[in-house]
Amino acid sequence: MIKMKTMFATLFAALVMMPAFAQETTGQPASFMESNGKIYVVLAVVVTIVAGLLIYVVRLDRKISKMEKRN
Q1: pTM higher than 0.85, yes or no?
Q2: CB-based contacts of 35: which residues, under 8 Å, 6+ apart?
Q3: Is the dihedral of CA 51, 19, 14, 33 positive or negative?
């Protein structure tokens, strides 16, 4: 379980620090997607997929741990 806590802490730290490494813009949209506001849709889809995968891995880990304890 300590490994899971470490993984979550590392992931959280990476996500928190990510805006610090973002490129500075001049106030104008950097790309076509950003100019139309569609970048937020793409971001929402990516976050949803990553969250789903994370939930799946956590549930799978718990099931495997239960099976290991039984045997």
Answers
A1: no
A2: 29
A3: positive
Distance between CA atoms of residues 59 and 38, nearest Å: 32
CA dist., res. 30 & res. 63, Å (int): 45
pLDDT tens for the 71 residues of the chain, in order: 567 778 777 777 777 666 655 555 566 656 665 667 787 888 899 999 999 999 999 999 999 999 999 97
Please state whether 54 falls in left (phi above 0), alpha (psi between -120 and 50) or beta.
Answer: alpha
**Residue 41 to residue 39: CA distance in whole angstroms:** 5
User: Which residue, 65, 55, 69, 53, is CA-closest to 1?
Assistant: 65
